[in-house]
Predict the structure.
Amino acid sequence: MRVVIDTNQLLKMMMAGEKSPLLMAWRSHAFEVIFSTPLMAELLEVSSRPKIEKLLRFGQKQKFLQLIHLHAIWVTLAPNSPPCRDPKDDMVIATALGGQSEFIVTSDKDLLDDELLKQTLAKENLQILYPMDLLKLI
């Protein structure tokens, strides 16, 4: 199972560490994480915000980033992927299509509530799910 995890969920995984069910499922090889350079750039930018950094324990961010670098499958963005109503999320979709992912995991309503986008992605065998919905599939 190939999965792209949106930045909002990556941050939750980073902060929760071993208490994150999504992180534990990935580490137990329940799915493969698909990643791209633009997704990493966003994660680095958001995780460097002072309000986020103060929530992280010493070394927690570096440990999580190292896990991604070593164990995620890195892909290039798919050209001409369908747009999201929030253009900042276009790279999530392009990453998923570039990596032939089956799922995008997010809590972002711009992705989850866009029925036209979901129908278009379904033709590519790509679904957008809440984290708990993915965990139920595993």
Observations:
- The mean pLDDT is 95.
- The chain has one domain: 2-137.
- DSSP finds nine helices and five strands in the chain.
- The first strand starts at residue 2 and ends at 5.
